[in-house]
Structure formats: structure tokens, C-alpha cells
Write a structure and sequence with these properties.
globular, alpha+beta, 26% strand, Aminopeptidase, three-stranded antiparallel β-sheet, eight-stranded mixed β-sheet, 6 helices
């Protein structure tokens, strides 16, 4: 099962940017459950016209300046089993057995029937001055995020990373770097998934963040906290 709080569901056959963007505007998001399947939820988005890095965002990026974001179009052209192993280990450790299977992660990344068309790959640069500092193949991946993107939206959907890597604030850094990438690439919004419970409050540290209440987008985080407590 997907972990979204779900108010409504639909399966689409029109995958045009205009149709998908209109549905994201109504709080729907793509899920991993099947091609075209979307769920309406308490969606969280960043309005990139209002987004600027805060001092806290900059602090996180400074601490992870050696983490590089690379973009891979899906289906993955050169898939490696270590990707789904990292994802399986992450979701099992953080959320419990059965949360996200290795086979489902692989399917989302290699199948033509996946709703997701972009993978963010995060790698640690080799230390400056080392013999390997200029060699991309030596910069081992430490995290990924399975995404959907179109001309207006980036849906930062399923992130996972190596829980044993020595990179403080890696999870929130990955999200921050994705938002910066979206703004630099002309997107209008970044969907950060849903606000299902109080654990989602960390998503609200970005300027321009909004949440969907079932009818409209709101900016009052204190109102949301009362709902989630």
C-alpha cells in the first residue's frame, strides 16, 4: 500500500502536461500502485515564485556541499541492482518490513508503465586534491529520489539514501537540492508528497510552502499543526 492519506482516487489515460498539472493543482499525485493511478491527498507543494533559500536552507547546503545531484531519465538506461537494495534497506529500516519492496522500486525505475520519469542521483564528491577527485565513477551514490516531472511540476516522490553514510542532514539536503534544481529549470511547483501526520512538518521549512485542505491551497502552518497533532 502507498502511505498517502487518500480522499479520492482516479486512473487517468491522458498524460498530457496540461491534464496532469491540473490534477496536481487539485491535490492529486501520482502513486506507485499502477500506471495512471492518482490519489487526492493533503498535498504539500512549494510555490517556486515565492521560494528563496532561508538561512537554515543555506546552512544545510553548506554542510552537504560535497553532495552532487545528477539527473537520470526514466526508464533507467543503465540500471544497477544496488539502487533497489539501497531503497529497500532504507524503507525497511525507517518504516518497517513490507513498506516498499525491492521489486517495486526496480519496476518504477525500469518499466515503461511507471508513472515516474526522473531519478535524482546524489553522490559524494571525492575529497579535493585526491587522485579520484576528477573521476565520476569513483563518486559512489549515497541517495536517490524517484520523481515525476513535467513542464510545470516536479513531484519529489520517493527519496531514499544510505543510512550508514557519513553525511549529516543528507535527507533534507537532498530535498533542498531538488527544489533548487526545479527553480533553476523553470518549474512552477515542487510537490513534496503529503502531510499525513505530524512527521511531515519538516517539509514546511521552505519559503513558499503550501498545503491542500481538500478544496484550496493554504499557507497557515499553525492551522495544519492543529490538524496533525
Amino acid at each position: 500500500m502507498d502511505r498517502y492519506l487518500t480522499w479520492d482516487e482516479k486512473t487517468i489515460t491522458d498524460f498530457s502536461d496540461a491534464n496532469v498539472s491540473a490534477l496536481y493543482e487539485r491535490g492529486f499525485v501520482f502513486t506507485r500502485l499502477g500506471k495512471g493511478q492518482m490519489a487526492q491527498t493533503r498535498s504539500v507543494r512549494v510555490d517556486l515564485n515565492k521560494f528563496e533559500l532561508t538561512s537554515e536552507n543555506r546552512r544545510v547546503l553548506k554542510k552537504t556541499e560535497n553532495v552532487r545531484l545528477n539527473v537520470v531519465s526514466l526508464p533507467h538506461p543503465n540500471y544497477d541492482w544496488r539502487i533497489h537494495k539501497m531503497g529497500f534497506d532504507f524503507y525497511t529500516t525507517k518504516f518497517g518490513p513490507g513498506t516498499f519492496s525491492a521489486n517495486k522500486i526496480k519496476e518504477l525505475l525500469i518499466s515503461e508503465n511507471s508513472n515516474f520519469n526522473l531519478l535524482f542521483k546524489y553522490s559524494l564528491d571525492a575529497p579535493k586534491g585526491s587522485l579520484d577527485s576528477a573521476r565520476d565513477d569513483k563518486n559512489e551514490p549515497v541517495g536517490y529520489c524517484i520523481c515525476y516531472t513535467n513542464s510545470d511540476w516536479l513531484h519529489y516522490a520517493y527519496p531514499f539514501y544510505d543510512l550508514n553514510v557519513d553525511a549529516p542532514n543528507l535527507g533534507i539536503s537532498m530535498m533542498t537540492k531538488a527544489i533548487v534544481w526545479a527553480k533553476e529549470n523553470g518549474k512552477k511547483y515542487v510537490c513534496l508528497g503529503s502531510a499525513k501526520d505530524a512527521a511531515a512538518i519538516y517539509k514546511f521549512q521552505f519559503s513558499g510552502v503550501e498545503w491542500f485542505d481538500g478544496k484550496e491551497w493554504k499557507t497557515d502552518v499553525e492551522e495544519l499543526k492543529k490538524i496533525l497533532k
